[in-house]
Amino acid sequence: MPNLLPFSQELRARTSRGHAESEGADFMGDLMTGKGTREDYIALVAQHYFIYEAIEDTAERRKNDPIVAPFLSDKLTRLPAIEADLRFLLGENWRESISPLPTTASYVARIREVAATWPGGFVAHHYTRYLGDLSGGQVIRTIMQRQFGFDTNGVGFYLFGDIAKPREFKDTYRERLDAAPWDDAERSRVIDEVLVAYRFNTDLFRDLAETKASSVA
Ligand code: HEM
């Protein structure tokens, strides 16, 4: 059957269940409903450090790839904001006090593997993180600010100072997804990789919940 939907819409439709599972993870749900602690939030920021280090390092290496290049923008770069957040939240020695959880280590390995071998796979990971940060991330930021009294320090990760209109930015990003020179088979592979990325995010929330439970015990 021919695909009648633009690719970006097909992608969203076929991954909405993956999104719902990530969004609905207990760890995230607790943070969003006031049951999570400031430490929980910091633990999440620490894992973002490793994830974005991998995405942004591999993006730099792939910046001349004709498939990847249209999706890259300096306006998206998150690592400096994450570093500043961690310095604010954990102090000068923040780097020595964080380490990747098992799911983060696997997630990072997967990002590096696909980035080295498969441009469409890299785009799948890039899409899953940045379009999410520009969407639900904005809701998360508002709630974290309200709950933990953050102004901008501590939630810089969610502040895209160079993107005045996230909606327009996301629309342009989706147009580029629609314009990518992928046949149906490649589109399916990219969709599957987005599902893989959602799965990593859901599993990471489970890791974070388990770490929290074991430190309370
Ligand atoms: C509390 C957690 C979350 C909330 C409340 C949330 C909320 C939302 C909302 C409202 C949108 C739609 C925005 C729009 O149509 O413009 C969205 C889109 C998106 N979210 Fe989330 N989200 C959450 C977690 C996540 C996670 C963990 C990921 C993956 C890392 C993610 C990835 C995405 C992506 C990729 C989109 C864009 C879908 C598309 O339009 O193609 N979200 N989110």
UniProtKB/TrEMBL annotation:
InterPro entries: Haem_Oase, Haem_Oase-like, Haem_Oase-like_multi-hlx. One of its GO terms (molecular function) is metal ion binding. Heme b binds at residues 12, 19, 127, 174. GO terms for biological process: heme catabolic process; heme oxidation; response to oxidative stress. The keyword Metal-binding applies. Pfam families: Heme_oxygenase. Keywords: Heme, Iron, Metal-binding. The keyword Cell membrane does not apply. Gene3D superfamilies: Heme oxygenase-like. This is Heme oxygenase. It comes from Mycetocola miduiensis.
